[in-house]
Specification:
Length: 418
């Protein structure tokens, strides 16, 4: 809603206010249920514009056909001077902008095609993000190129490449903005976030990632009003923001966003946040394993602060100290998420499974445990003796399980509770 209207001052210069987000949750966690009301105002405006777009397109096609006929007639004329003057005065009609602003499954080339004749400010919103993370762009032969392309979009630019048979115009697409929010299931997220090549390209460091614990088992039914005042206010406010025409060049496909500066106090707060993160990415620092995320965290905070400011006041010229304080709090939360997700990559699958098994063992109201019991009612992914044997051995080495001598009986361990 706001990325088309303003860029933001950061400690490294001017940046878009666009955000890239990834939300990870299991099927049935209500990803789509949250997605629908969040984008409803945008979809209403799209539907309205689509109705009139067909008429505007027909008028443009008729006008262009007349223009083309006049052009051919003038070119065929015999008076060279008169022909050149008339050709210069003959103005080609401008095609109406395609109204689509939301894409749920799009390639980089498809996005550039949309920029060629469509809206300059768009969003990639997918409540089934596996279509993108598991699709064409993430195949091994396309991965490096796709990640580099997306990273450029985050910075506010896109480059069309010359390819044989490509329908995408070459050249640099300036004055375009892209917002991205993918929602995926844990299995897809584990594969994607564990891909070293994607991370080395800098794609994940440009994303704000949320991977909460499951809410399954806690969502008891509550009767509530789906038209609650807060949701209605959000809906009206977002629609009003989208109905404000963004600043553009003479060519409406090129944005000319104004600069949203930092107030002195907001800038001072951002510098302090940046320096604190910088100190922690030293080799022995707390954020050393996620230095790529921490290095971009101050810019993420500036972008978030701009979004908060512009949502509150679309005509704002300065980021307020309050918005920056809230933004650094959010950026810090996302940084801790990155540390939790990416800072444990060195942990082996065996250790992760042992932690899962130990969590289940400690929740039981029992003093002892056998492999048979774990195989019968333990965590489902671990229910196999061949899987459990090394896990029990590891927990025994770590003194969580103490073997009980039991000749002639199944091996039994005493649970060494903390």
């Amino acid at each position: 809603a706001v990325q088309a209207h303003a860029d933001v001052e950061t400690l490294g210069g001017r940046s878009p206010t666009s955000l890239f987000l990834l939300s990870v949750a299991r099927s049935g966690e209500r990803k789509s249920a949250c997605f629908a009301p969040a984008v409803a105002p945008i979809q209403r405006i799209e539907e309205e514009e689509i109705e009139g777009y067909a008429r505007r397109l027909r008028r443009y096609e008729d006008a262009h056909a007349i223009w083309e006929a006049d052009r051919k007639r003038l070119i065929a004329g015999s008076d060279v001077i008169e022909r050149d003057v008339d050709l210069e005065a003959l103005e080609e009609p401008t095609a109406p902008l395609c109204p689509h602003r939301i894409f749920e499954d799009v390639t980089f080339e498809g996005l550039l095609r949309s920029f060629a004749d469509g809206q300059p400010s768009v969003a990639i919103f997918a409540d089934e993000g596996a279509q993108i993370l598991g699709g064409y762009a993430m195949r091994s032969e396309n991965k490096a190129k796709s990640d580099g392309d997306v990273s450029k979009l985050w910075s506010g630019s896109a480059q069309g490449r010359a390819c044989a048979g490509s329908a995408v115009p070459t050249g640099k697409y300036i004055g375009r903005r892209v917002r991205c929010h993918l929602m995926v299931q844990p299995r897809i997220a584990e594969q994607a976030t564990g891909d070293v090549e994607i991370r080395d390209q800098g794609f994940w460091a440009r994303c704000l990632i949320a991977w909460p614990e499951t809410s399954f088992g806690t969502r008891l039914h509550k009767t509530h009003d789906r038209t609650a005042p807060a949701l209605e206010a959000y809906d009206r406010h977002l629609e009003a923001l989208f109905r404000c025409a963004p600043p553009t060049a003479a060519d409406a496909r090129i944005l000319r966003p104004r600069l949203l500066s930092l107030s002195p106090a907001a800038k001072e707060h951002l510098i302090a946040y940046h320096d604190a993160a910088e100190r922690e990415i030293a080799p022995d620092g707390r954020l050393a394993e996620v230095a790529d995320f921490a290095s971009k965290s101050a810019e993420q905070a500036a972008r978030i602060a701009a979004v908060l400011t512009l949502y509150e006041n679309p005509d704002a010229t300065l980021v307020t100290p309050e918005a920056m304080e809230n933004a650094t709090g959010l950026a810090d939360w996302y940084l801790f998420e990155a540390e939790r997700i990416f800072g444990t990559r060195a942990v082996s699958p065996l250790t992760k499974d042992a932690e899962k098994l130990l969590g289940w063992i400690l929740k039981r109201n029992a003093q002892t445990i056998t492999i048979h019991e774990a195989n019968h009612c333990g965590p489902k992914p671990l229910r196999a003796v061949a899987t459990l044997d090394p896990l029990f051995a590891l927990l025994e080495r770590l003194n969580w399980l103490l073997p009980i001598p039991s000749p002639g009986r199944k091996a039994t361990w005493w649970i060494n509770r903390p």
